[in-house]
Amino acid sequence: MGRVSDLSASGSLPELRGGWTERSFDVGSRRVVLHVPADPDALLDDPAVLERHERDDYMPYWAHLWPAAVRMADAVGRFEWIGGGRVLELGCGLGLVGIAAAVAGASRGVHVTLSDYDADAVRVTLLNAERNGVENVSGLVLDWRDPPDVRFDEIVGCDLLYEERDHVPILDAIDRLLEPGGCCWLADPGRTRALEFWHRAEERGYSLAAFCPETGEAVVPRLGSAFVMRLRKPSPE
User: Fold this and answer.
1) Cα 160-59-48 angle, rounded to 5 deg
2) pLDDT tens across 106-153, in order?
3) What pLDDT digit, counting tens, does each position of 184-209 carry?
4) Percent of the chain residues past pLDDT 90, beyond the cut
5) Where are the domains of the chain?
6) Sign of torsion, CA 14 59 103 26?
7) Would you tell me how many other CB atoms lie within 10 Å of the CB of residue 112?
8) Are 21 and 128 in contact (CB under 8 A)?
9) What is the per-residue DSSP string for 123-170?
10) Burial class (CB in 10 A: 0-12, 13-18, 19+), 62
11) pLDDT value at 3 more than 70
12) Which of 59, 46, 53 is CA-nearest to residue 15?
């Protein structure tokens, strides 16, 4: 079962093949600086990664800053899509989007839980939050195949829909983790798989809308075009 992590932002970055560097990003009107792997692909030759891949089909996706995350972070900072309350970043990776949500929502009492399947990702994300003076965050080691029995007002995630086999577990996790009437925001560069997920969510009764990450305007989701989908969970009658 997913568990609340006892990880903290104290300490140093974990040892990593290829080492670490820093990159900066515009999040609305603010600049955010993150610790990121200097060579994410170097992890593919790490014996520990190879062993985990053999055991559980694990891949160190967390080490990459995916383009949809960069767009989503800036959009969260500019369009105030995150309304407030308890927010979960699902698959936080290096934490850019969750940190952006925490920065944008700090004045409205938003608290962001930064979650990932990989404990190293959660550690680095908490260090990145500390690096930027962001305090309204906590960490959660979470396997979306077996999520904990907790609820959030909103969920955010980026580049999660590339594997069709994950669609049902992700939707099941959203069903369990999201409060009735709550919103889940998922960014994608416009993969075929994302459109398939859209239809699956619609079949489950979610109210769906799509938005352009650059302008915030409502759009029709299209193959090859980046968009942010909003899934609103039905409220009980």
Assistant:
1) 150
2) 888 999 999 999 998 999 999 999 999 999 999 999 999 999 999 999
3) 999 999 999 999 999 999 999 999 99
4) 68
5) 3-232
6) positive
7) 30
8) no
9) HHHHHHHHHTT--SEEEEE--TTS--S--EEEEEEES--S-GGGHHHH
10) buried
11) no
12) 46
Residue corresponding to tokens 């396997």? 143
For the chain, state the CA radius of gyration: 17
Q: How many CA atoms lie within 13 A of 229 on its CB side?
A: 27
Q: Amino acid identity of 190? A: G
The dihedral through the CA atoms of 195, 180, 145, 138 has a sign that is positive
What is the C-alpha separation between 64 and 163, in angstroms, rounded?
16
Residues 72 and 213 sit within 8 Å (Cβ to Cβ): yes
Asked whether 91 and 115 are in contact (CB, 8 A), the reply is yes
Yes or no: is domain 3-232 CATH 3.40.50.150? yes
Kindly state the tokens that stand for 58: 């694990």
Q: What is the DSSP string of the chain?
A: --EE----S-S-PPP-TT-EEEEEEEETTEEEEEEEES-GGGGGG-HHHHHHHHHH----GGGS--HHHHHHHHHHHHH----SSEEEESS-TT-HHHHHHHHHHGGGT-EEEEEESSHHHHHHHHHHHHHTT--SEEEEE--TTS--S--EEEEEEES--S-GGGHHHHHHHHHHHEEEEEEEEEEES--HHHHHHHHHHHHTT-EEEEE-TTT--EE---TTS-EEEEEEPPPP-
Reading the block at residue 227, the tokens are 């968009």
Instruction: Give the C-alpha separation, 209 to 223, whole Å.
Output: 15
β-pairing, 218-219 vs 207-211, is: antiparallel
